[in-house]
Design brief:
There is one protein chain. By secondary structure, this protein is mainly beta. Helix content is 3%, strand content 55%. The protein has a single domain, classed as Maltoporin, Chain A, CATH 2.40.170.20. The chain is built from four helices and 38 strands. The strands form seven sheets. The chain has a 22-stranded antiparallel beta barrel. The chain has a five-stranded mixed β-sheet with strand order 3-9-10-7-8. It has a three-stranded antiparallel β-sheet with strand order 4-5-6. It starts with 55 loop residues before the first helix and ends with a strand. It comes from Salinicola socius. Keywords: Cell outer membrane, Membrane, Receptor, TonB box, Transmembrane, Transmembrane beta strand, Transport. This is TonB-dependent receptor.
């Protein structure tokens, strides 16, 4: 049987010949047949055609054939034995996603604890993503630093859930986010997008791409965007800017050099949400209420420099050397509440000020090679990588006194960094080298066995400037991370899969003796079934998982009180659940995204205060669909709509927060209508929260991080392609 040609699936044909050709590095299986023996005699393998997969802006729709997240080499979604979601360029633009956290709110299996746009915390399976990849090269991501990326420069977003330590060993338990860059095109193309909506939401994007020299050997692309809004909360202005420039240079017909620069800038008025009343009950106030000072300020700039060299070998092998250097700087100074509102309407406000400087370098070199064995085609990849993260953090806090919701906006200006009490002044460094290898072996055509291993050398180091530059460090020269999986094709459309994956994450928290805690270690078991329909235009997945987490840090508790600045490792945490996802095009002109997640978490603490996970609802549903009409009086119209629903969630009680803040579940309905005026000009109206549902989408403490969801709003947009 012959699979869809874009899939990384190999077969032994019974016909006399098979050639799966592509312009370069195609996967070919050629057999010769003797008259007296129809069996396969030779099998010649040349390349993996998925390296030539088209970007989602070209293929359109909501589905893609393959992904690279967590696999290093491109693989069909059915051949990756873990949970993968891919959000395409068309899906991003249909729902007006400008930042990664906006996208994650509407993506199956992901949970966002909202803050300002670009400063939210993104979770999967109960764990926060603490870095994001650009074409497989990682850099840190932190909500407080505002380094959640804008999306204008990216073709699609690939999301893997659960540990994946084979290629990202010192990463979080929740998985990997990989952003795939928009690449320069061989033909000239460009577009302009403009949007305007409620609360003075406005967005402008220009994207130009094409050949630079006469032969097309050098190609370039430039993307510039500006996103600005006054926000539905009073005084909560927010501006995000992106500049992206890229060059692809053909050194010869098999070798390409890619260079890129990405600058992202964020300037906003921070909103830390509302306090509760003195009993921990959520306030019934207008959604525009701003519990901060009118001088609140936050500014961040990040710069990414990316270089990549690829070569296609005559034997079908593929080599890649790539590097990403990032710098980030964030400055902030703002006020928010730290106590509940008393009966007389007063509460205590606090100021936070500081700055964060961060540099990161990630490099990767890999080689992949398909090969023939037992009459089938298998593949291996070997490689080495390096990353170094260095972060200088300074934070100070100051109690600003008693105030009210009416008065806090006018509270006197304070430069908290100058007059406050220093809470953090340190430098954290993480450095890691790794060697990795993965084998995808097909002993028989329907079965793929996947095994891999990684050996890492790392050092984590913290220098505390508040304690005479005291240094705490921990290292390991031979940390091994295994990986195993299997995929069994049931028929042309369905595959069973199972996998075991691990990850470890060095920690920068210190115990009572001033030593860094041991690294966290995560292990996940996952099983499921994947389906691919209509030649890959519709992808489905049903999965179940169990994840174990050891050594996660939590504040130490002694005699019922939290010990300031001292942490202990929590006992094992077990997270288990199930997911269902359906993405793609079931019928012509009809696109859908449907996802359901069930999550059950069992926390077993030992002598420490562990309040993580409780903001994760047990049930979460995401639905989005759109349909485009062709012919008749509705020709050129597009209509769409979706629902995002969560069950109840709450905070945990602790020595520092003895009262749990509870929030009821909610369901929010959105809609869209668009019209193609010409083949080059398209218009769209997005109606968000069309029933004007009033709800809290995040709760925190009695003083802060209790956040209303956005009221009903509308955004109009135009796109012109030239």
């Amino acid at each position: 049987m012959i699979r869809h040609p874009h899939c990384f699936r190999y077969c032994v044909p019974v016909a006399v010949g098979l050639s799966l050709s592509a312009p370069w590095a195609s996967l070919q299986a050629q057999e010769t047949q003797r008259a007296d023996n129809p069996a396969l005699k030779t099998l010649t393998v040349k390349g993996n055609r998925l390296y030539e997969m088209l970007p989602s802006e070209v293929t359109g729709g909501y589905a893609v054939d393959a992904a690279t997240v967590g696999t290093k080499t491109p693989a069909a979604l059915r051949d990756i034995p873990q949970s993968i979601s891919v959000v395409t360029r068309e899906a991003i633009e249909a729902q007006n996603f400008d930042t990664l956290d906006e996208m994650a709110r509407r993506t199956p299996g992901m949970r966002v604890l909202p803050n300002d746009s670009g400063r939210s915390s993104i979770y999967a399976r109960g764990y926060e993503y603490d870095e994001y990849n650009v074409d497989g090269l990682p850099a840190p991501m932190a909500s407080i630093v505002g380094t959640v990326p804008n999306l204008a420069a990216f073709d699609r977003v690939e999301v893997m859930r659960g540990p994946s330590g084979l290629f990202n060993s010192t990463s979080e338990m929740g998985g990997i986010i990989n952003l795939v860059r928009k690449r320069p095109t061989e033909d000239f193309q460009g577009h302009v997008i403009g949007r305007y909506g409620s609360w003075d939401q406005n967005y402008l994007e220009t994207d130009i791409s094409g050949p630079i020299d006469a032969t097309g050997r050098v190609r370039g692309r430039m993307v510039i965007s500006n996103d600005d809004t006054n926000g539905y909360v009073d005084d909560n202005e927010n501006t995000n800017q992106t500049f992206y420039g890229a060059l692809d240079i053909d050194l010869d017909e098999d070798t390409m050099l890619s260079l890129a620069y990405l600058r992202q800038h964020r300037d906003l008025v921070p909103n830390n949400g509302l306090p509760t009343d003195a009993n921990g009950n959520l306030l019934d106030v207008t959604r525009s209420t701003f519990a901060g000072a009118d001088w609140n300020g936050f500014e961040m700039q990040s710069n990414d420099y990316i270089a990549e060299l690829t070569h296609r070998f005559d034997n079908g092998g593929y080599g890649r050397i790539a590097a990403r250097y990032s710098t980030r700087n964030a400055d902030f100074n703002y006020a928010y509440g730290i106590t509940g509102v008393a009966e007389d309407g007063t509460f205590t406000a606090r100021g936070l000020g500081g700055d964060v400087d961060q540099q990161s370098l990630s490099m990767d070199a890999s080689y992949s090679q398909p090969f023939a064995a037992l009459g089938n085609v298998s593949e291996f990849v070997v490689g080495t990588d390096y990353k170094r993260y260095e972060t200088e953090t300074f934070q100070a806090v100051s109690v600003l006194g008693s105030t009210t919701l009416d008065q806090i906006n006018d509270i006197a200006y304070v430069d908290v960094s100058d007059v406050g009490t220093v809470s953090t002044d340190d430098r954290e460094t993480l450095e890691e080298y790794g060697l990795y290898s993965k084998l995808t072996f097909r002993p028989i055509q329907p079965l793929a066995l996947i095994a891999g291993g990684r050996v890492s050398s790392y050092q984590a180091r913290v220098t505390d400037h508040t304690d005479d530059d005291a240094v705490a460090s921990r290292s390991d020269d031979s940390k091994f991370t295994p990986y195993a999986g299997a995929v069994l094709d049931l028929d042309d459309r369905h595959s069973l899969y199972a996998s075991y994956s691990e990850v470890f994450n060095p920690q920068t928290y210190t115990d009572a003796n001033g030593r860094l805690l041991e690294p966290r270690e995560g292990k996940q078991y996952e099983i499921g079934i994947k389906g691919s329909y209509f030649h890959g235009d519709l992808n489905a997945r049903v999965s179940a998982f169990r994840l174990y987490d050891d050594n996660r840090a939590a504040p130490l508790v002694e005699n019922g009180a939290t010990v300031s600045g001292v942490y202990a490792s929590v006992g094992k945490t077990r997270t288990q659940g199930a997911e269902l996802e359906l993405t793609g095009t079931p019928l012509p002109n009809w696109d859908i995204i449907v996802g359901y997640t069930y999550l059950d978490i069992d926390i077993r603490s030992e002598g420490s205060e562990d309040t993580a996970f409780v903001l994760m609802p047990k049930n979460q549903l995401n639905v989005w669909t759109q349909y485009g009409f062709e012919g008749g009086i509705l020709d050129g119209f597009h209509i769409g709509g979706g629902v995002t629903a969560l069950s109840d969630f709450q905070t945990a009680t602790s020595a520092r927060a003895p009262i749990s803040i509870e929030a009821p579940g909610y369901a929010v309905v959105d809609a869209m209508v668009g019209y193609d005026f010409t083949s080059n000009l398209k218009g769209q109206l997005n109606f968000n929260n069309i029933f004007d549902k009033t709800y809290y989408e995040r709760v925190g403490s009695m003083g802060t991080f209790n956040m209303y969801g956005a009221p009903s709003n509308v955004v109009a947009s135009l796109r012109y392609d030239f």
